[in-house]
């Protein structure tokens, strides 16, 4: 039964009084709302669009249709990574017909979304930008790690929005009031007791491993973490959320004493799982398709590296032996600009790091197809890269990535 109630303005948008582009976008939003049984739509304060990453002709057709109908975004809208590094186009391979086609169409698609009024941020980490949403704000964000960060760390409210719904929400300023937009859907459903991990939770490696374990265990449920240090960094929470969203379908997590909506009282009879160091060892062994031998490249910054992470990498590389394998750092333009202003970018590039913007090395043809063994500090990159670009991967800390790049082979320590 259709119980969806629209306001007068929403009815006018649907009826075409605001233009055919808005009407088309509203039909998509209303269609999803009816499928999900939403009682109404909710006004959003921002959107983050993933549709700008080229996945075939349909991506272009829909964007061009909206542009042709005169559509413009109604709320501040950031853009996710595209299929090109527009500042460094020479980094992207174009040796095959398929690579040239993706580069050409990817650039065209990115331009179309700018024509719709979106801000050309080209980052998968919009929460690193100014004016991020606050507690309780309704937004429409796509891209799995952006969704989980907004919901969990910021306490904003977004459901899982995929391609085309994201831009339609931006054009209408509306999203269905359903799923994680509602209070009742945001309660934790399963507990992970991380206290046995002790001091390991003070390391950066703990969080991608923990995210991969939790995501693979719970799928789309809402985990509650006990034992996370109160002073945990946003970068570590980012790494956890990105890995949990990749390995499962986690769109919201709670860390007791850390995240704004985490429970403060008894957790009742929720199922509880204990996480210890052996769990982390098994997770690393399961994920890494190599654990020793020669290394062809290193890729860090997935999701996009923050300024603090860029600075940490620069500090690790400032002194010591040179790196012996290609080393890629993916980040957003705003972060790169800040790194350039402070001299961090100069240090990175002098050490031999290639800084990639606008895209990521596991979705765009940047790494050589001859390279087979690649190291990363990202659980998300490690999860997707073997299938996406055909590499073997080992997951390590940022310090282990640097040590391995200097040795030209995998250098990791046993977790203890």
Name the descriptors:
Aconitase, domain 3; globular; alpha/beta; 14 strands; 4-stranded parallel β-sheet; 416 residues; single chain
Q: How would you classify the helix and strand content by structural class?
A: alpha/beta
Output the CATH topology of the largest domain.
Answer: Aconitase, domain 3
**What is the assigned CATH homologous superfamily of the largest domain?**
Aconitase, domain 3
Mean pLDDT: 96
**Helix content class:** 25-40%
Radius of gyration, rounded?
22 Å
Number of domains: 3
Strand order of the largest sheet: 12-11-10-13-14
Examine the secondary-structure arrangement and name the CATH architecture of the largest domain: 2-Layer Sandwich
Largest sheet: 5 strands, parallel
Q: What distance lies between the first and last C-alpha atoms, to the nearest angstrom?
A: 56 Å
Question: Helical stretch count?
Answer: 14
Task: Walk me through the structure.
By secondary structure, the protein is an alpha/beta fold. It folds into three domains: 175 residues, 2-Layer Sandwich (Aconitase, domain 3); 99 residues, no CATH class; 120 residues, Aconitase, domain 3. 39% of the residues lie in helices and 13% in strands. The chain contains 14 helices and 14 strands. A five-stranded parallel sheet has the order 12-11-10-13-14, with helices on both faces. A four-stranded parallel sheet has the order 8-7-6-9, with no helix packed on it. The longest helix is centred in the first third of the chain and has 19 residues. The radius of gyration is 22 Å and the shape is globular.
